[in-house]
Amino acid sequence: MKLTIAWIGKTKNPAIESLTKEYLERISRYVDSQGLTLADEPALLKLCARVRTRPAHTLVLFDMRGKQLSSEDFADFLRNHEDRNRQPLALAIGPADGFTDEARRSATAILSLGRMTLAHELARVVVLEQVYRALTILRGHPYHTEH
């Protein structure tokens, strides 16, 4: 599976940058992955635009209106994508004011981190940690059960 984790907006906090780098390194042990800073939502939609007849990436948004999953369910979600879809997967964390309806219509799935509001930089770290956790669940690594 090829995985792009994209976020909109530059990182202002060095601690967030450090955690982002740490989790991207951990994730890369399990899958071909990259972190990508995008300027705005149109750049995200361009990343996932159609190439010939298929989108370049399968787009999944993290948005407060999305479906809430447990860590195990998210691991199953990633496994199902890996088993059924050879397209790269783009997981996107939106800007501080959220995604537009256009972006939500472009997404294959919309997931939520919960009903509480998180700062978008903190949401990025949560998504990265949950991706890493899901991959360790799928590979039988004890990380998930040790925390």
What is the share of helical residues?
40-55%
Helix tally?
Answer: 6
CATH homologous superfamily (4th level) name: SPOUT methyltransferase, trefoil knot domain
Biggest β-sheet strands, sense, barrel: 5 strands, parallel
Overall structural domain count: 1
**Main CATH class:** Alpha Beta
By CATH, the topology is Alpha/beta knot
- What ranges have pLDDT less than 50 throughout 5 or more consecutive residues? none
CATH A-level architecture: 3-Layer(aba) Sandwich
Give the C-alpha Rg. 14 Å
Give the overall average pLDDT.
91
Strand content: 25-35%
Q: What does this protein structure show overall?
A:
45% of the residues lie in helices and 26% in strands. The protein is an alpha/beta fold and 147 residues long. A five-stranded parallel β-sheet has the order 2-1-6-5-7. It has a two-stranded antiparallel ribbon with strand order 3-4. Helix 3 (71-84) links the parallel strand 5 (58-68) and strand 6 (89-93). The longest helix is centred in the C-terminal third of the chain and has 20 residues, at 120-139.
